[in-house]
Amino acid sequence: MAVRIGIIGAGGIAQHHAKTLCTLPEATIAAAADPNQANAKVFADSYGSRTYSDAARMLEGESDLDAVMIASGADVRLEPIRQVCERGVALFCEKPPALDLASAVAAKEAIERAGILNTVGFQTRWSPSAKRLRELMTGRRILFARVVIAWPVFKWVEDGLAPGRLYTKAGCGGPMIEQGIHYQDVLRYITQDEPVWVQAVADLGKTEPIEGRDCEDTTIVTARHASGMVSAHVHNWSHVEHLLQMQLVGNEFDLTWRIDEGEVVVGRLDGKDVDERLEANPYAEEMKGFVAAVAAKDQSMLRSTYADACKSLAVCVAATRAVETRSAQDIENV
Ligand SMILES: NC(=O)c1ccc[n+]([C@@H]2O[C@H](COP(=O)([O-])OP(=O)(O)OC[C@H]3O[C@@H](n4cnc5c(N)ncnc54)[C@H](O)[C@@H]3O)[C@@H](O)[C@H]2O)c1
To answer: Contact, 189 vs 306, CB < 8 A?
Structure first.
C-alpha cells in the first residue's frame, strides 16, 4: 500500500518535493493544507489531493495518513508539529527546524514524547558526496574546513522566485538560520565534529538598498570544533553566480567538494589524486529515503532527525548572536 502523505504549507518547496513524490508508486499525496488557496489548488489540480485551508482541518478530515510534510515557514511550525505528534504519524519537517531554540526544544520534546518517525529537510546530507566524504573522514584528523556559499538570493526575491520574508530576520531568522544551516548541518554530518563556539561578522553589503531588508549580504562564521578543528564558512546572498564549495584539509588529504557542480569531489588523499564525479539529485534521494523509511517504519534509514537538526540550529543561532553582539558565542547544547 502506498504511503499516504498530507502536506502542510503548499508553497515553493512543497511543490518541488511533490514533483518527486508523484513519480514514486509507493507514495500518494493525499491532501494539502494552506491558507493560500492558489497554492493548495496546485495540489488538487496536479495530484488530485484534497485541499484544506488549515492544518488542523486536514488532520481532522484525513483519518488514514501515514506521514505529514510540514513545509510552511519556520515561524509557524510548532503548532502543526504538536498536532502531528498527537496524530502519531511520521513527520518530514522542512528546515530550519524552528527560528529559535526555545521553539525547537519544545518541538523536539513533543516529537520524543510521541515517539514518531521524524526527519528534517536537509537534502544536502542525501548527496552521495556527503556520504562519501563522511566515510573518508571517519577516524581522520581534519586541520581545518572551508565552506564558501554564494547565491543570488536577493535577486530570486526580486524576481518573485523566493518569498519576500527572505529580506528580513523577522521573516526567516537571517541568512544563517534560513540557509547557512544546510552547510553547517552537512559539515557536522561529514566531520562528526561538533562546533563548540563561534565568532561571526556580517554586513548588509554593497548591493542596492532594499527597503526593510535587514538580512545581511555576507556573513562569515568561524567555529572551533570539539577536536580542535577550525572551520570558516562564508555565506553570501547577493552574488550573481552560484558558488558552493567545501574544502577539508588534513595532513594526508586536501579534498574539495564542488557542490555547485553537483556530486564532484576533487583533491588528494593518501598521496593519490581524487576526482569523483557522480550523478544524483539529493532532493529526490531525500524524498525516496523518507517514503522508504515510513513504509519500513525504520528511523535508521533517515539521515537527519529533528533532535539532531536542533544542534545545527544552535550553531546558526549562536552565529547570528555573534554578529549582533560582536562577540564569540558558546553553542548551546540542545
Ligand atoms: N530544503 C530546501 O532546500 C528548502 C528550499 C526552500 C525552502 N525551504 C524551507 O521550506 C519552508 C517553506 O519555504 P518556501 O520557500 O516553500 O516558502 P513559501 O512561502 O513558498 O511557502 C510556504 C507556504 O506555507 C503557507 N503557510 C503559511 N502559514 C501556514 C499555515 N499556518 N498552515 C499551512 N500553510 C501555511 C503559505 O501560504 C505558503 O503557501 C521554509 O522553512 C524554507 O526555509 C527549504
So the answer is: no
134/149 Cα distance (integer angstroms): 20
pLDDT value at position 250?
98
Which residue CA neighbors atom 35 of ligand 1 most closely?
A: 9
User: What span, in angstroms and rounded, lies between the C-alpha atoms of 137 and 236?
Assistant: 27
Note whether 255 and 139 are same-domain residues. Answer: yes
Domain limits at 21? 3-121+284-290
300 located within any domain: no
Q: Is the CB of 71 under 6 A from ligand 1?
A: yes
Judge if 97 and 211 occupy the same domain: no
- 188 and 220, same domain (yes or no): yes
pLDDT digits 0-9 by tens, 158-179: 999 999 999 999 999 999 999 9
Pocket test for ligand 1, best of 39, 94, 124 (most atoms within 8 A of CB): 94
Q: Examine residue 324 and state whether it is found in any structural domain, yes or no.
A: yes
Give the burial class of 321: count Cβ atoms within 10 A of its Cβ; 0-12 exposed, 13-18 middle, 19 or more buried: middle
- 211 falls in which pLDDT band (50, 70, 90)? confident
